[in-house]
Amino acid sequence: QRPVAAADMIRLDDLNAATPDAFTAALGAVFEDAPWVAAYAAARRPFPTVTALHAAMFAAVQDAPRDEQMRFLNGHPELAGEAARRGTMAAFSVDEQAGLGLDRWDDAGFEALNRGYRARFGLPFILCVRRHTSASLLRQLHRRLGGSAEGERAAALQEVFLITRLRLAGLVDGLGMPVVHGRLSTHVLNTALARPAEGVAVSLFEVGSAAALVQGVTNADGRTEAPLLSGAPLRIGQYELRFEVGAYFAGLGLPVADPPFLDVIPMRFGIAEAEAHYHVPLLVSPGTYTTYRGS
């Protein structure tokens, strides 16, 4: 069962009125190969909000006996494993891992880390990959290999919470939707003329990648017409914004050096909160610039 188009989302009111079997059939894929989670929630209706529905479903896993909980966690596929490359996982997992390119990974070192994690903790390394870049995924795996068995069980459950919250938010529509999306925006101000900078080309890169994630040009208000990133979790990782201010100032006819002192300004920053709003403004003149995390 893959994420659905907005027009085809299931209404919370309809789920509250559905038979237990229909409810379980509609939501059974949200928790990996565990339709019993949906059955647990079906008996606890009605739900006033989508957030409350997710809380009830997650409570089924939290309240399960330890052996059943561990069986559930072990039902999750390995990241970038054989099932990912063959596309034989549950549909949600196929889409999630492919979104980060894990279906194309063939890294013996990463496979060894995965095996080491399972050998140490008795469960696969579970991470909500829709919230991470590939570099962040590797950092998380290295960090969590140093944890304790109990700490990793708790960490895996927290990742399941994040994974399933995203899945449910893409499947069910109703009051009280969970916050699952972040936003990245910018604003360029010309401090030499004390006005917004219109016509500055802006590009966003993930650090280490040569291909731009998004490109835009600032409008009369000094902003891009739409946020640089929105409508999904921001992937935790390191990024670089590039502002082409040399061409902008040349177009204004302001006196600038040849070549200009400031041409393309690269601004590196980190995203650590996938559901947050990151606003990265640029205050610039031909000879100086500054930035800060705005709101």
Distinct helical segment count = 11
Question: Helix content range of the residues, please?
Answer: 25-40%
Q: How many DSSP E strands?
A: 11
Structural class: alpha+beta
Any overview of this molecule?
This protein has 295 residues and is of the alpha+beta class. Helices cover 38% and strands 20% of the residues. It contains 11 helices and 11 strands. A hairpin with a 4-residue loop joins strand 3 (182-190) and strand 4 (195-196). Helix 2 packs across helix 3 (35-42) and helix 3 (35-42) packs across helix 4 (50-62). The two termini are 37 Å apart. The mean pLDDT is 94.
Features:
single chain; 295 residues; alpha+beta; five-stranded mixed sheet; 11 helices; 11 strands; 38% helix; elongated
List the helices and strands and how they pair.
Layout: E1 10-11, H1 12-17, H2 20-27, H3 35-42, H4 50-62, H5 66-74, H6 82-86, H7 91-99, H8 108-121, H9 134-144, H10 149-169, E2 172-173, E3 182-190, E4 195-196, E5 201-206, E6 214-217, E7 229-232, E8 237-244, H11 245-252, E9 264-271, E10 277-285, E11 288-291
Parallel strand pairs: 1-2, 3-10
Antiparallel strand pairs: 3-4, 3-7, 5-6, 5-8, 8-9, 10-11
Helix pairs in contact: 2-3, 3-4, 4-10, 8-9
